[in-house]
Design a protein that fits this description.
eight-stranded mixed sheet; alpha/beta; TIM Barrel; about 300 residues; single chain
């Protein structure tokens, strides 16, 4: 992370904590919900299968920038499917950098060639070992790992959604992140139970067991891009929601925190680690503040 970026985020954090601000710093643009996979835990793919045009996405990026967002994510659907004429995901990342976003990331399922060195992080979904990942996402594990090894940059972060199908494979994903070429880190979420995927939800005991595994893997040198100081709050679902410092824009609609905010009762069962981390950070939790400083300087 550039020193100037660090200073900007530090100043934002201090101001937000002292004055209980609700201005956003992290924004996500949904560029399409079209996806080439049908994952068992996903509730938001191929609802419209629309590719939002470049000028519209650019306008949404500008809107987020004017709101104060400086950390930008591109999400889908599958982001590497996005096209508008000769424009691709790379053009969006380059344009975001030109606009002045300080960190620009994208989320992908990893089934397309990973040639995007302009992104700060490519968050790539790996949902367990080969057996469990393929159970959830179809026969894609080997193809994804080949794409990772052939990637043109080491900016990849594995991204695992832990649920009832893969909860025993957290250690496997940590080891893969540690030992695989071009992978910088691994980040976890607990499954957030949309009404059609409620059977995949974890119990409190499941979450506690997973957190113990993650902490042990951190001790063993796994590059985990999460904050263990937030684990007790995630286990008990006792962190403030929604996160006002995060916004999502999709087809012109801005939502605070995430798309799931419109589903009644879902905030109370939120499994997104970054939501817990950011809400605790901006409430001035000192353990989270110091751990986030160390973690972001190490991996971003």
């Amino acid at each position: 992370m550039k020193f100037s970026s660090f200073l900007h985020f530090a100043a934002f954090g201090v101001k937000t904590i002292l004055f209980r601000g609700k201005k956003p710093i992290l924004g996500t643009v949904i560029i399409t919900d079209k996806c080439n996979l049908k994952c068992k835990h996903c509730s938001v793919n191929n609802i419209t299968a629309i590719m939002h045009p470049y000028e519209k996405v650019k306008g949404e990026m500008e809107q987020l920038y004017q709101m104060g967002v400086r950390i930008l994510f591109f999400c889908g659907g599958e982001t590497f499917l996005w096209r508008d004429g000769d424009k691709t995901l790379r053009d969006l990342v380059i344009e975001a950098k030109r606009m002045g976003f300080l960190i620009v990331n994208t989320v992908t399922n990893g089934t397309f060639p990973l040639d995007l060195p302009e992104a700060d992080l490519i968050l790539l979904s790996v949902d367990g070992n080969r057996e469990k990942h393929n159970l959830i996402r179809g026969d894609t594990y080997d193809k994804i790992m080949e794409n990772v090894k052939n990637a043109t940059s080491d900016n990849i972060c594995f991204y695992m959604a832990i649920n009832q199908l893969n909860k025993e494979t957290v250690r496997d994903v940590c080891i893969a992140a540690r030992d695989t070429k071009n992978v910088r880190a691994v980040s976890f979420n607990f499954h957030t139970p949309y009404p059609d995927t409620r059977e995949l939800a974890l119990t409190k005991e499941d979450k506690a067991a997973c957190c113990e595994v993650i902490k042990q893997m951190m001790k063993e040198g796994a590059p985990v891009f999460n904050l263990k100081s937030a684990f007790p709050y995630l286990i008990e679902n006792k962190f403030p929601t929604p996160c006002h410092q995060c916004v999502v824009i999709e087809d012109g609609k801005v939502s605070v925190c995430g798309r799931c905010i419109d589903v009644p009762g879902l905030c109370e069962e939120c499994g997104y680690f970054f939501v817990a981390e950011y809400t605790l950070l901006f409430r001035g939790n000192l353990k989270v503040v110091f751990e986030m400083l160390f973690t972001y300087l190490k991996y971003v």
